[in-house]
Specification:
By secondary structure, this protein is α+β, with helices and mostly antiparallel strands. It folds into 2 domains: 71 residues, Sandwich (Immunoglobulin-like); 135 residues, no CATH class. It has 10 helices and 9 strands. It has a 4-stranded antiparallel beta sheet, with no helix packed on it. Helix 3 packs antiparallel against helix 6, helix 5 crosses helix 6 and helix 7 packs across helix 10. The longest helix has 25 residues. The protein is elongated and about 100 Å long.
């Protein structure tokens, strides 16, 4: 009886052997398709065994798999990628971003809005000083009273022009922030539009300053996609003439 049991056990072992012994630990690396840099927080799943693992901060992972198994890598803001296990000692995943990738050169080529504002503040330091005269009330030896210098600064023609200039600079800053993030490169790569039609689209669907400073890159790209879907249904509906370029001149 004992001999029969041993035979059954051996038969079961041989039956399970192909799966039990063929599986081995596979190592791999996950990187960004465009930048070639390694990325973390990626889930790798073996579709046959349903085993799931996360890669580490270096983009590396290891998982049990057999030749022919399908491994799927998924991560937020990236399209899933599938690799079939073969004889290669290392599995390589190259994930493509869901949002359109912008080359660093494109971003660097554009001036940062904060740098532009800083330069404007330095160039027009007097205007910023005059536009903010300080407290209208001053406290002296005789008690509180009106500050003559502040009143003069508040109502003088020079101060009025300074305030107007300050508002223009602040308005330009907000426009620069929008232009910097809602860039031609990003919109063109997301929609495929070029030339005048691209400019027209950006004029029509120009987002607000508040949205631009509060949204993520993912949310901004989705906004562009949603606007493009509306635009595609009836482009003529959104026809508008481009606004003329006006250079404001301050009254001396």
């Amino acid at each position: 009886m004992k001999t029969l049991q041993n035979i059954v056990i051996l038969i079961l072992l041989f039956a399970l052997a192909p799966d039990a012994f063929a599986q081995k630990r596979i190592e791999g690396i996950v990187s960004d398709f465009n930048t070639k840099q390694r990325i973390s927080k990626v889930t790798i799943r073996n579709t046959r065994t349903n085993e799931e693992v996360f890669n580490n901060s270096k983009g590396e992972f290891s998982i049990m798999a057999d030749k022919g198994d399908a491994l799927i890598a998924t991560s937020r803001e990236y399209y899933p990628d599938t690799v079939i296990v073969n004889t290669s000692p290392v599995i390589l995943f190259h994930l493509k971003r869901e949002s359109i990738y912008i080359d660093e050169v494109s971003v660097v080529a554009k001036k940062d809005p904060d740098e532009i504002l800083k330069k404007a503040r330095n160039d027009y330091e007097k205007a910023f000083r005059l536009s903010d005269p300080g407290d209208l009330f001053s406290v002296g030896q005789n008690g509180a009273g009106l500050s003559i210098n502040s009143i003069y600064s508040l109502f003088s023609r020079e101060a009025k022009n300074a305030k107007r200039l300050k508002k223009l600079i602040e308005s330009d800053y907000k426009d620069n922030v929008i232009e910097y993030k809602f860039s031609e490169q990003l919109v063109s790569r997301t929609t495929g539009l070029e030339g005048e039609e691209l400019n027209k689209f950006r004029r029509i669907f120009k987002p607000s300053y508040f949205f631009i400073i509060s949204c993520t890159q993912y949310e901004l790209t989705n906004y562009i996609k949603e606007c493009y879907e509306k635009y595609q249904k009836n482009p003529s509906r959104y026809f508008i003439e481009p606004l003329p370029t006006i250079n404001p001149i301050l009254v001396p």
